Every structure is written in structure tokens, then in C-alpha cells.
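Subject: Rho termination factor

B.,
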Amino acid sequence: MAKDHGNQIKNDDTYEALREEGYSKEKSARIANAQANSEQTPSKDGGKGKKYEDRTKEELYQKAKEVGIEGRSNMSKDELIDALRNH
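Prediction pasted inline below.
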């Protein structure tokens, strides 16, 4: 039985399987959470998102918050884009 990782991990079984395969905590969480979301899966919706440059600063801030980027509140739009791409 999978360990409960709290509210941030939506699919504990998938998360643990990915961690055992050597994926980072962040990548495992992203994949597990995307698969738990019935409306959006990485395999079906990959590449269909808006480009970062086409998003508002608020949208970028929310995405940075979602993936846990530190210092996001003091970042400009360009800095948020760079942080998201290199996270």
C-alpha cells in the first residue's frame, strides 16, 4: 500500500512507482498529479498549452506557485518564465 503524501500528491501509487524508478520528487509529483486529473493527461494534451510568453504574469505566478518555485512573488514576468523553464 502506498504511503499517504498529503494533499499535494494526487496519486500516491504512481508517485511512489516513479520515485522507485529514479525520477525526482518534483517530476514524480507532476506526473502523478497530471494522471490523477481526469480532464488532462500528459500523453493526450502534451504540447497544447499556451506558450509562457502568451500568458499573463498572474498565470505564470500561479504556475510557479503550483510547481513550488521559491521567490516567485518578487519575480518579473521574464524571470518567472526563466524559472519555470529551468525548474
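The chain has two domains: 1-44, 52-86.

T.
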